[in-house]
């Protein structure tokens, strides 16, 4: 049972209109947004931040951004966000071999050195205490420019918020997210946990 129940998608029409963004990303409006709309200023600000963070202005693809989100969510243990991130990675064109082997990105040949640097950055930045160090910085700068690094940290930070929100809230997970979680993450022990 969630800490706070989500409201109807029709509760706040401005949120509903902004939330159309998630129909492309996930195929549904997340229950997290439906809960945030109990304070519509929060739901609207969150959706606008999400859109800004996920906009592509460099070489960081939509698929890579979602894999960065998955690594961050895996590091923090949020099963809700893990399933959402892997579903969005699939919907945004991540290679099947990458989806099937996301757990092994450090060594699997489906990932190149630039992607590994980005995903290692996500892992280090999502840890408490923070693990970003000179070695991570050096590897990032071998492959990415400063604007692209800002885009990546935007994703990591956005998912830091979502990981805290959804794990604390015990947000009910949607069927489509469960399906993606079981398909790509189940073999490594993923389950809904408290997100029923």
TrEMBL record:
SUPFAM superfamilies (UniProt xref): AhpD-like
Signal peptide annotation: none
Chain ranges of the Carboxymuconolactone decarboxylase-like domain: 40-120
Residue intervals passing through the bilayer: none
InterPro entries according to UniProt: AhpD-like, CMD-like
GO molecular function per UniProt: peroxiredoxin activity
Pfam families hit by this protein: CMD (PF02627)
Protein name: Fusion protein
The species this protein was found in: Algibacter mikhailovii
């Amino acid at each position: 049972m969630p800490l706070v129940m989500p409201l109807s998608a029709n509760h706040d029409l401005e949120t509903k209109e902004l939330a159309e963004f998630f129909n492309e990303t996930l195929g549904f409006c997340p229950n997290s947004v439906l809960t945030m709309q109990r304070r519509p200023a929060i739901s609207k600000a969150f959706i606008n931040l999400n859109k800004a963070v996920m906009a592509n202005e460099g070489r960081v693809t939509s698929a890579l951004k979602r894999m960065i989100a998955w690594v961050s969510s895996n590091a923090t243990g949020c099963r809700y966000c893990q399933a959402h991130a892997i579903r969005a990675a699939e919907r945004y064109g991540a290679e099947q071999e990458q989806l099937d082997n996301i757990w092994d990105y450090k060594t699997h040949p489906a990932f190149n050195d630039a992607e590994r640097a980005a995903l290692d950055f996500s892992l280090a930045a999502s840890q408490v205490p923070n693990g970003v160090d000179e070695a991570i910085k050096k590897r990032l700068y071998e492959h990415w420019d400063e604007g692209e690094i800002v885009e990546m940290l935007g994703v990591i930070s956005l998912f830091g918020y979502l990981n805290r929100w959804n794990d604390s809230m015990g947000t009910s997970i949607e069927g489509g997210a469960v399906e993606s979680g079981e398909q790509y993450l189940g073999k490594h022990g993923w389950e809904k946990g408290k997100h029923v």
